[in-house]
Design a protein that fits this description.
The complex is a heterodimer of chains A (229) and B (272). Chain A has 229 residues and is an alpha+beta fold. In chain A, 54% of the residues lie in helices and 14% in strands. Chain B has a single domain, classed as TIM Barrel, CATH 3.20.20. The chains are: A alpha+beta (229), B alpha/beta (272). At the A-B interface, helix 1 and helix 2 of A face strand 5, strand 6 and helix 3 of B.
Chain lengths: 229, 272
Amino acid sequence: MREFKAQKKLIDIAFENAKLPKNHQGYKIYKALVFHRFFEVLSNAYPIFYEEVDKKRFEKIIYEFMRYGAKSEVMWKLPNEFRTFVKKHKKFQEIPYVNELLWFEWVEVALMMRNYKSQKEKKFSYSKNYKLNSSVLLKKLDYKVFEKESYDKKGEYYLLAYYDFNDLQVYYREISLPMYMFLKELNKNGLNQAINLIAKKSKQTKKEVKEFFKASLEELINLRILKRI
Amino acid sequence: MNNINGLGLGLRRDFLQEIDADGFLPDWWEIAPENWFDIPFHHREKFEEVISLRPVVAHGLSLSIGSHEPIDKKFLKQMKSFLDRYKIEDYSDHISFTSLLGSQTYDLLPLSMTKKSIEHTSDKIKRVMDYMQRELILENATYYYVPDSDMREVEFINELMEKSGAKLLLDVNNIYVNAQNHGFDAHEFLNELDVSKAAYIHVAGHYEDEELGMIIDSHGMPVKQEVWDFLGDTLKKVDIPVMIERDNNIPQYSVMEKEYKILKKVVKNARI
């Protein structure tokens, strides 16, 4: 059908699946407009990545991504689709920390856009049970992508990203391995199991573990990083 | 239009914090629903407060009504649920396509102006209206070349509106831009256009790309004098709500207030 063919031709040209015909201003404009949409959203969502990457290569990968197919009608989700594409198809392998950097930058958008319910702060108590709020993400990283000019520094890092309900922005905090393990276990199996796990690993009594984590957990409650269940 | 009268303004996220219930408010808002499906936590309350102050029209971007593929039912469901949640009765989009074979372009791409295209698009429009339980209002779009077509744009639009039962969102800037780019007379186009189908009017800015030798419908500039003049002429033919559309290069709300005052003057002068 000629109408479908005309649409397919335009898409193919816009996505660099077909050559741009010479002296065709219309196709040229649409190719530029479509590319600009993708470029603008991706470079704004990933400013650190954009600074790090070779610009020509970035352009080339955007076209590959377009051909792969962006599915979401909602543009704010486009950077996450791009991130998944980069990871799945092993793009930008010359940047070993690329997947972690894209995750780090995406988290800010993801946590900002989540649908939170208003919650009242409550006092922390070891007699209650808790889990991580949906405003929080925990991640083990192999590169220090959360610190300026240390992106390529290899190591073992544990990051807590959270939406701050008072400042209305996303913060990142590097946490210790015991805290990371504690929060992971708490989220999966509850507070008592988390205490048990750390007591076993650190060869301390439960009382000592409780004492060790008390101030931190009180702060996490205040920041609504933990919620009562 | 179910509940819109007077002059409107596109509501942008950048304006939210500047809008005050006791300050300047347009007669109605137009919102891009896809940009509000998911609202950042810190904007939700203000958004809901602002849209409760005035009637709202939803002007979509992603319906892709002219694309030669089936309607995306998941998207329609999401749209209907958004419109129902905020009790928005008026829903518009564009005579164009934005996606094909499941891939998004995030731009408004031109349709072949043919009888087959009218048939196909009308069928989709009817199904959308049935599902949404609302009239669909469709905007005449800009195009920078004419894809494999055998009708003139004005014939295409008139027949599409007639066959589908959709209403027209009359974008006077787009008529002006297309007339300049494709060498036809905007007033003659308007004379031929069936304005009885028009529900409301868009007016917007554009820029001239000297290198390409074309005018680009950017929605990122103030409205040009020649487009204000054309709007004035249009309003002598049709008395319907009008609004200013600004999607890019968003200025402060107070700047839009000034442009809104110009719109008010143009409308007043045209309707004397």
